[in-house]
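G., the chain you wanted modeled:
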Amino acid sequence: MISGYLITTVSIIVTVVSSAATLAYWLGRKLTRIEYEVSTLRRMIKGLAEASVEAHSIAMEYPSLKGFLRGVKSII
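Predicted structure as tokens:
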């Protein structure tokens, strides 16, 4: 009688533990993928910001080099 309850209890515990371990593994893989995507997005945004600054400085320096902006100092 007691061995029947013990077997049932152990089987339930094993099922719950294995389900929790599977969920933890799956969630860890998903979070790793999300972390990679966020890192990639940060690199892209940084590159875009650098390109924007470069385009702005070219747009400001070119006219001054051509003499269009006489007397205007570049802030860059």
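The helical segments are 2-66.

Shout if anything looks off.
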